[in-house]
Amino acid sequence: MNINATLYGQFVIIFALIMGAFCYYLGRRKTQTPVLAGLLGVVLSLIPIFGLVYLVVLVLKKDVGSTSAAVSE
Questions:
Q1: What is the pLDDT of residue 66?
Q2: Strand ranges for 1-73 from DSSP E
Q3: CA-atom Rg of the chain in angstroms
Q4: Residue 34 near residue 20 (C-beta atoms within 8 A)
Q5: Is residue 34 within 8 Å of residue 28, measured between CB atoms?
Q6: What whole-number distance in Å separates Cα of residue 20 and Cα of residue 60?
Q7: Mean pLDDT, the chain, as a whole number?
Q8: Integer Cα distance of 33 and 53 in angstroms
Q9: Would you place residue 1 in the very low, low, confident or very high pLDDT band (cuts 50, 70, 90)?
Q10: CA 71 to each of CA 37, 46, 66, 68: distance values in angstroms, whole numbers, following the listed order
Q11: Taking the CB of residue 44, how many other CB atoms lie within 10 A of it?
């Protein structure tokens, strides 16, 4: 069975961009640094299994609470 390296490379790049978008979206709710979460998602998605594991970690993480509600006067 022949594996087309160009097609695989295109799949990895598209997969990394999509995973980066998902990680950024989840990072907005789950972390205080969503840009860093998105970039880490893109980098880890260059090896697809690492990207999926990172996405599962973000999904299972608790939401960051609103800090403005916690301030008392």
A1: 62
A2: none
A3: 16
A4: no
A5: yes
A6: 17
A7: 87
A8: 19
A9: confident
A10: 26, 41, 10, 6
A11: 20
Burial class of residue 27, CB neighbours in 10 A (0-12, 13-18, 19+)? buried
Domain boundaries, the chain: 5-60
Give the rounded distance of the alpha carbon of 47 from its chain centre: 13
Q: Tokens for 33? A: 């640094």
- Residue written as tokens 């980098």? 43
Contact 44, 16 (CB under 8 A): no
Tokens of 48: 């697809």
3 CB contacts (<8 Å, ≥6 apart)?
none
* pTM summary value: 0.78
